[in-house]
């Protein structure tokens, strides 16, 4: 697997008259191509600070960030801006669309800034809008779209430059829970099918089901990391139960042939895992 985004000992201290705020402390992170990492934490936990550091929108007090092989934290302002333009896509909670532009024009904007030629721009905008299921809404302005549709335009704009890394800060924060789930599912699908490395923050515990990894932040520190939507501890507990339970206690929805259930030997850990995978 190829690491697309890497952070080493990222620390960001804000200095104010009220004292220092350690918004991020010693955060290490690696995100592979095609991997969706969700950063979870309550308000003030440091999610936005971390995402801004990862996306090169803010400079760490100490620590380093790499996008692919390039150390972003070692670049000049201009080179960093270019790296952001070419390799990163951003999605914001407030959508960040320009009201007087159509959906298609909003999506096209990053390509205009990058001076992509018009024919290619047109093709890429159409593709991006198709990927977020908004081909028919191309001429509409943001105000004529629902919140979920506006955020899908935001996502199309973020992926139109074919970024290596997607950074989304509470992309579903302004959406109702059903729309939020749809938007999160879309992000998961794009990341997994297009090999983008994504870091998405949320404070909504229901939105982690598409995640390959979940990182919990508290007071700027990583307090736990779990793989997928099931925490490691839960997986271990499930395996403990599968190992100990007599085979007759296999769940009713099991698709195993009836004959196997009458074996008297308990399943080994590896067998139990293989059975779960087959289901
Ligand atoms: N520019 C800033 N100046 C001073 N303190 C800040 C600044 N940005 C964030 N903070 C503080 O850093 C902490 C983390 O904030 P933030 O990253 O916005 O958290 P979250 O996105 O999880 O709500 C908070 O205590 C916040 O008040
Ligand atoms: Mg925030």
Which helices and strands appear, and what pairs or packs with what?
Blueprint: E1 3-16, E2 19-32, E3 36-40, H1 47-54, E4 62-67, E5 70-71, H2 77-87, E6 88-92, H3 103-113, H4 118-131, H5 147-159, E7 165-169, H6 177-194, E8 197-202, E9 213-218, E10 221-227, H7 232-244, H8 258-261, H9 269-278
Structure description:
- Pfam families: ABC_tran (PF00005).
- This is Putative ABC transport system ATP-binding protein.
- It comes from Microbacterium immunditiarum.
- Residues 243-266 have a biased composition (Low complexity).
- This protein has 279 residues and is an alpha/beta fold.
- Helices cover 37% and strands 25% of the residues.
- A 6-stranded mixed β-sheet has the order 6-7-8-3-9-10. A 4-stranded antiparallel β-sheet has the order 2-1-4-5, with helices on one face.
- A hairpin with a 2-residue loop joins β4 (62-67) and β5 (70-71).
- The two termini are 26 Å apart.
- The chain binds adenosine-5'-diphosphate and magnesium ion.
- The site of adenosine-5'-diphosphate has 12 residues, from β1, β2 and α1.
- Residues 14, 16, 21, 23, 41, 43-49 line the site of adenosine-5'-diphosphate.
How would you briefly describe this protein structure?
The chain is α/β, with parallel strands linked by helices and 279 residues long.
Features:
AAA+_ATPase; binds adenosine-5'-diphosphate; 6-stranded mixed sheet; ATP hydrolysis activity; P-loop_NTPase; 37% helix; 9 helices; Putative ABC transport system ATP-binding protein; 279 residues
């Amino acid at each position: 697997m190829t690491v697309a985004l890497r952070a080493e000992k990222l620390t960001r201290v804000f200095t104010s008259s009220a004292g220092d705020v350690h918004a991020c402390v010693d955060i290490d992170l690696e995100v592979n191509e095609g991997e969706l990492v969700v950063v979870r934490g309550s308000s003030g936990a440091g999610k936005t600070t971390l995402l801004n550091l990862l996306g090169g929108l803010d400079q760490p007090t100490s620590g380093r960030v790499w996008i692919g092989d390039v150390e972003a934290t070692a670049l000049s302002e201009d080179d960093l801006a270019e790296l952001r333009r070419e390799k990163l896509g951003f999605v914001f909670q407030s959508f960040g669309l320009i009201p007087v532009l159509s959906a298609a024009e909003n999506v096209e904007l990053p390509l205009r800034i990058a001076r992509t030629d018009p024919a290619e721009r047109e093709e890429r905008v159409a593709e991006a809008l198709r990927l977020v299921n908004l081909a028919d809404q191309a001429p509409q302005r943001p105000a004529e779209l629902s919140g979920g549709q506006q955020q899908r335009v935001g996502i199309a704009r973020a992926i139109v430059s074919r970024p290596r890394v997607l950074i989304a800060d509470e992309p579903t924060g302004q959406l109702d829970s059903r729309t939020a789930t749809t938007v999160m599912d879309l992000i998961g699908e794009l990341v997994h099918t297009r090999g983008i490395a994504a870091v998405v923050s949320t404070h909504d515990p229901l939105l982690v089901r598409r995640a390959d990894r979940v990182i919990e932040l508290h007071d700027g520190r990583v307090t736990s990391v779990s793989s997928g939507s099931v925490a490691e501890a839960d997986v271990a507990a499930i395996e403990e139960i599968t190992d100990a339970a007599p085979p007759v206690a296999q769940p009713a929805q099991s698709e195993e042939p009836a004959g196997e259930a009458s074996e008297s030997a308990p399943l080994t850990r590896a067998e139990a895992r293989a059975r779960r995978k087959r289901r």
